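Hello forum,

I keep getting stuck at the same step: I have a sequence, I want structure tokens, and every attempt I make locally crashes halfway through. Rather than fight my setup again tonight, could one of you with a working pipeline run this one for me? It's a single chain of 72 residues.
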Amino acid sequence: MSTLSVRLPDDIAERLKSLAKNRNVSVNKLMNELSTRALLEEEARQQFLAAQLRGSRKRGLKMLDELDALVK
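Reply #2:
Ran it on my machine without issues. Output:
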């Protein structure tokens, strides 16, 4: 496991701490969840673009549905 230091404006850091508290998780777990979600969304976007280039409309629409399910 790696450690990553991130510089954030004080107001953003406080809002993240508050969000973690409201969700009953540590800031570390919250950042892990948010990072994972961002990576999954980007991977889905890349897959959609690749399918679009291959001309697979059906697969592209399926991936959009999957992305919608992730965001909800």
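Residues 51 and 60 are 6 Å apart (CA to CA). If your local run keeps crashing, start a new thread with the error log.
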